[in-house]
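Researcher: Next entry in the queue.
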Amino acid sequence: MKTGYKLALATASIALGFGVIQAKPAEAATLSGPIYIYAAASLTDTLPQVEALYKQSNPDVTFINTFGASGTLANQIIMGTNPNPVDIFFSVSQAPLDNLQAANKLIVETRKNVLNNTLAVITPINSTISISSVQDLLQLPQVAIGNPAFVPAGVFAQQLFTNSGISGQVNLVFGSDVRNVLSLVSNNTVDAGIVYTTDALTALDKVKIAYTPPINLYSPIVYGSAVLRQTQNIDAATDFNSFLASSQASPVFQASGFSPIPEPMTTGGSIAAGIVGLMMKRKVTVKAKAKTKAAVD
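Model: Structure for this entry, 297 residues:
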């Protein structure tokens, strides 16, 4: 084996080792204290389950969650009205995170996309209304959606109406967040509502999914998280923020109806893959040149 090839293999091995080191979580013994999280209302049921899983390896970490409309929570952080320093912001839709980033409230390097979701049209469990298209909502006296001014689910619902050619024609009732919309429907206050599929799945004893709109009628529903600059527990916050997008947390989110976004390759893994790729390319090139020379000779 030539010296250059040996050196490349050694470099790749070091890079692969670096990738493993990068991916290794912080030692549990070094992580403790409270983590304050502001999270989208649609994460109310699932996030505590992920936190419970994390605590199995990090028993000294505690969580204090505040759930609500992502836009409202982001505004509280920007205006400084949150009563405690927030460590992690876990939002649905990119806009609230973009606003926080523009206000220099995020540690930008920690920002990542974590989950996907979809919309569902729901009706009360005892409803006899049949809905087979978005246009059928025009026939209903009241349809609830989140207030688009600060509820991302309401923004996605408005996109659904616009792309279906019925913008401004639906008789709407605005909810304070997606869970409020779910409550309005489950209590028979309105005839139908538009929520995330994951929210509908939490209340199938009170509501039913009457219609699932095509996903090409609204923007991708992406949940993202980031550690905030105001954090007072940066080590634990950074570690848990990474855990949200990990293969360990993924099954918990999937069980609730979310679609986790795959973990990106670590820096070391990327370097190693690149080195190995160059090695293979060089090897093929050398062989090709050898064949050409043999043919000429």
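Model: The longest helix spans residues 267-296.
Researcher: Noted, moving on.
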